[in-house]
Design goal:
binds magnesium ion; 8 helices; Rossmann fold; 49% helix; seven-stranded parallel β-sheet; globular; alpha/beta; binds adenosine-5'-triphosphate; 7 strands
Length: 218
């Protein structure tokens, strides 16, 4: 059994690579054979992150490989239990390809309308091109400390007909520092931040597991 998930967004810098590494790290820790396909050959963010992780010999290892196209990446996907497509900065032709190949498509987003609107437009576009809406899930990244803002963002996504992970990831220097050190969001020095990231990862894992069970039953 091999599962492919994709992380995409309309806007750049919303936390795609961060979420890709978080999910891959949790599955790797559970003993799964995972691989992140870094599709951003210009920046190679996840690839460089892996190099920092390797230098500090951080366990579990989270292998990352760079690919110029989604098609090239997908050739090796069946070799892994979990294959994570870390999408390019902006939605491109490749975005639909990522979504078509993924059992679950994760759309990280900030909470401002400036972030939410393009995210919803991308989701609508994917659905219009044949991706089932229940295969999409939004994750709030870089949240502030306003509960009202968070509630409004959730209502916005709910009204648009999509689901989201209930726990929002706060914008924290410690998360950024962790990434700088080749660590995932569950590996910061702060237990409360690790727990929050773990809650997000666990929600995604639960969705992936349920999705998988549905597919096997079908
Ligand atoms: N919750 C957070 N708190 C603080 N910093 C964050 C958080 N999430 C992401 N970042 C930082 O924001 C920057 C962008 O994140 P990331 O690289 O994951 O986004 P991306 O969507 O993959 O970007 P790109 O579109 O360039 O591929 C990184 O420096 C990352 O460390
Ligand atoms: Mg990225």
């Amino acid at each position: 059994m091999s599962i492919t998930i994709g992380i995409v967004s309309q806007k750049g810098g919303v936390g795609k690579s961060t979420i890709a590494r978080l999910v891959a790290r949790e599955y790797a820790a559970a003993g799964w054979n995972v691989k992140i396909a870094d599709l951003d050959i210009q920046q190679g963010t996840s690839f460089n992150w892996q190099a920092r992780r390797l230098r500090r010999a951080q366990e579990p290892a989270v292998p990352v490989e760079r690919f110029g196209t989604v098609a090239q990446a997908l050739k090796i996907a069946p070799q892994y239990d979990l294959f994570v497509l870390d999408g390019p900065p902006h939605a491109t032709m490749g975005t639909l390809h990522i979504a078509e190949a993924s059992q679950l498509v994760i759309l990280p987003t900030g909470l401002a309308l400036d972030d939410l609107e393009p995210g919803i437009l991308l989701a609508h576009e994917l659905v219009r091109k044949g991706i089932p809406a229940n295969r999409l899930v939004f994750v709030f990244t870089r949240a502030g400390d306003s509960i009202a803002e968070e509630d409004e963002a959730k209502a916005y996504i709910r009204q648009a007909g999509y689901r989201f992970v209930d726990t929002a990831l706060p914008e924290k220097v410690a998360y950024r520092r962790a990434s700088d050190e080749g660590l995932a969001l569950t590996e910061t020095r702060f237990t409360s931040l690790n727990a929050k990231a773990d809650a997000v990862a666990q929600s995604l894992i639960d969705i992936i597991t349920a999705q998988q069970q549905e597919e096997e039953a079908a």
